[in-house]
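Revision sheet: structure tokens.
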Amino acid sequence: MYYGCCMTIKEENFLITLIKILIELWHLSIKKSNRYQSQSLKILQKISLNILTDTTKNLYKMFDWVNARYI
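Predicted:
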């Protein structure tokens, strides 16, 4: 029996796509900041990194809850 979270396939795909976009933006901001870094790139880097860390923390919590339901 599956007691997982109630996310649909569309929501999962959206979340995965959002994470991929944020990772690409973060990498782009790092690549562009080799010599000089504009204020907008600094902001983009901070925002994308903050969202990625928050999303990762929430995913770990969600999977901990799912694993706890299996036990």
